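Task: sequence in, structure out. Protein: Alpha-1,4 glucan phosphorylase.
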Amino acid sequence: MGVEPSRAQLLDWRLALAHTLREQATDSWLDSARRTREDGLKSVNYLSMEFLPGRLLEDAAINLRLRDSVSASFDDLGVNFADVVAGEPDPALGNGGLGRLAACYLESMATLACPAHGYGLRYERGLFRQHFEDGRQVERPDEWLTSGDPFSLSRPATAYAVPFGGEVSDDDGGTAWRPETRLVAAAHDTPVIGYGGGWVNTLRLWSALPAADLLDLDRFSAGDFFGAAETETWARTLSRVLYPTDTTDLGRRLRLSQEHFLTSASVQDVLHRFLETQQDLRRLPEHAAIQMNDTHPALAGPELIRLLVDEHGVGFDTAADLAVQVLGYTNHTLLPEALEMWPVDLMRHLLPRHLQIIERLDQRVHAVHGSAADDVHLIEHGQVKMGELAVVTSHRVNGVSALHTDLVRRNLFPHLEALTPGRILNVTNGITPRRWLALANPALADLVTETIGPGWETDLDRLRELEPHAEDPNFLEAFGRTKHLAKHRLATWLDEEHGIELPVEALLDVQVKRLHEYKRQLLNILWTVSRWQRIKADPGADWVPRVKIFGGKAAPSYTAVKDIIRLINDVGAVINSDPETRERLRIIYPPNYNVTMAEKLIPAADLSEQISTAGMEASGTGNMKFALNGALTIGTLDGANVEIREEVGAENFFLFGLTADEVLARREQPGHARAAIEQSQPLQDVLQAIAEGTFSPEEPARYSGLVDHLWNSDWFLVASDFDAYNSSQELVDMSYRDPLRWQRMAVTNVARMGSFSSDRAVRHYMREIWNVPPAQ
Ligand code: 9GP
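Result:
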């Protein structure tokens, strides 16, 4: 680093560590690419608008099996390794589960020596930093690049021109697109190191640069300096921030441009790498699979067809067939607002050639399937439907949990499932045990290794060998100590970072995830108020002390959940300062939940809140991380909860609430919310307290809208599930009062989490979707 060790600051050490670890990975990195090229291996290209990799350095050290030696080397230098890595920014290049899943899958692909590239955008600013002011969420820019990105390599030699706008015309029987502008996509590569370091893949993130000619020199010379740079500014804006709000036309234009920019650069790169070793484009499916992570990269089909037809002279039908063989699509949501649709006019303006291809694909579906395709429309009511487009351009479409996939087949794409039965399949999500156990919970990881030996890191099913130990009081005690250690670590961190005191002896009851009405943080906080009221009514009873921990951000424009954030903080302010209940109930909501915070919270949790309205959470992955770290789940029959419960056993899972089918039926009943509230005295008491301004005395009517909504609408069925949730929470208390019983349940959860490893999920993708054989 050009600094004398005695004068080096923590940042210098961190940069030095990043370069050292990258260098340690470089031989494998080059070897993996060389073997893929020379042996003609098929490789996976995972296109995602979001990646949430978390801090990179400690993970890299673990996967290179160097963590202990790195730490010892720092000791020799008189530097604390933990301090060095604690300063590393956590790149927030995603919103939540979707981006974190992409990161887990990349890590598993590298561990399984599955040749792969992750492709995404290198947002200069990631998801906003969350602060609270008067309990309200305030968003600030997230500057993750201020001290560089030392673990990655910029590749100035790898850049592609991405065309936008202009016109298409039919000349000499062919189609010519004369784009108005071209932006440059510049590559930045981060090594993705498999466990053991034997295989290293690449996460390639694109940043947008203007082509050199974008500065309007005439305007500049005339003194219009800002006007001259207009197009240039537009170019740079493209990779400036993650997901701008899409409620304005400008926002929509920017978002669609980002999606096209990511897909075009990535697909060009895929073709470029193919053509380095091969000539016959008809063999593309033997060498490349492209996975679309949600509909965001759904332009991959039209873009691949465009490149094959317009630049390589392939016929349209052949190109379309090739695209289908190469592409796969993962659906991550049933929420209508998240299934993208783009106005035809906008598409024509930005991507006229793609629109033409989509129209032709639509005609093709009808020509092939005749009247069976009457319900299939890629374009409808002036909108291009990206979900439909992704399905018809893919050979496989998958949901992310058994229940979700069933709903995708039955409710979302029934008309498409009927056309090509078998195209839709399920691959339940998974998480990497390297980050979510080895890195996040070293004490538990060590206990597991002492008990069953090493090897579980890459064969998580081996955790089953822990099960007989669930009867051994010595083991249970040791297991309890690991939870205690994690709680103390969390307490220190909360104190140092946020000045928050954590009573470590209490039951830690945690709900961390994005804020959304369907995730029902509201149900959780309403129950917390009810608990407070009941403690006050009967202070002498034997209450299990609880700390309710919340974490998560709300989309800046989602006012309904911003109210819920404020309510949680308002309730916290009142309850936490109540001397009568303080020792038995506390609310903690540290701001700016991210991967790093998850690594601290999850190992310390006793209870994992997975309480979405059934049928609405596609899978969840937090649910898996908690159970792997020995937290018990209180949850509905939703997403992967269903499979987690099957694995760990109904007796080791606190189930409550309406099922997905019951949810649909209940919504049909007029006045269901009012009826549910009238039947529940505890819920009435809670709503009354909130409506009277108990938690907002300076503005008593602050939550009247929220309370009204619960009485009169309650789409997410908070009221309907309230009493069942309460009964289930009482069971939680009962079980917790018997520490040995609780520990046994927790150990059983850990022992049965093997099938939620992302290695299992990735193997499934390799076999059923990508057609990539396992490494020898
Ligand atoms: O909401 C789902 C979440 O349930 C799932 O675990 C995650 C990964 O599959 O994807 C989320 N979906 C999105 O973020 C947007 O579709």
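Residues 454 and 744 are 22 Å apart (CA to CA).
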